[in-house]
Amino acid sequence: MLKRLTTCLTLLLSLLAVDSVADSGDKNLAPAQQQLLEAHTSPGMMMGSFDSYASYLYAVRNVMIHTYDDDINSTQIHSTFQANDKPTWREIFDSIAKQTGSQWSYDSEHNYWVFSKGSTVPPFTIAIAPGWKSEYRGNYVSYRPPIAPVGLDIYFKESSGISEQITSSALKSAQKVNPNAKETEMKNQRVGQHDALFYSTVIPSTGIVWRQWVFGADKKEFVIVSAIKPENEKIILPDVQKMVQSFKVNSNSAS
What we know:
Distance between the termini: 43 Å
Helix content: 25-40%
Oligomer: single chain
Shape: globular
Strand content: 25-35%
Low-confidence stretches: 20-24
Number of strands: 14
């Protein structure tokens, strides 16, 4: 049972991680590159280091990916797809980006897709609860309590921050755990100095309590999610609430 609950939590949070890197590198692309991103294919021999997979794609698939970062180049990657899946190239690139903590973009001068890491510091700070550990994963930060594999994740991406977009993102996130989630079920809550859309639900199959806060600040969109097993609520929830309220954007221009 514990293994099933952990797998469920990891799957739900990984769905958000993929969304947060999507559209990271497809702005102002020519039609040929747009078509490639949406084309379904097999990921092929997606194993070994980034460098070895790049060589395979070039030699066998005539698709060129590249990085100038030695850490990315040596990072071990693996397929996150099922054996018979036919993901799009966008989904493959997003999977690579998630595993290497990077973002991808197209270099038209050299005709290859470049994976690179932005800042090594997330665009926010929080006061981490005692005993918790954090891991920066490029497009989000994962915070883990001493007694559970997951506790709090904070995702971020570039965004105009307009209310309609924030509402759409909040609803999309909520519907990953509850397909029947409605905008009217969301409440306004403060996260630090920011107004956020808050949603909470209990996942029937596991009893896990899902909470999320979605808001825009400093030309970015932030999605904070917490997934807690019911027996851990009294221990983990107070820490989560304190960390959420300690949230600060690392910018003087934050809204």
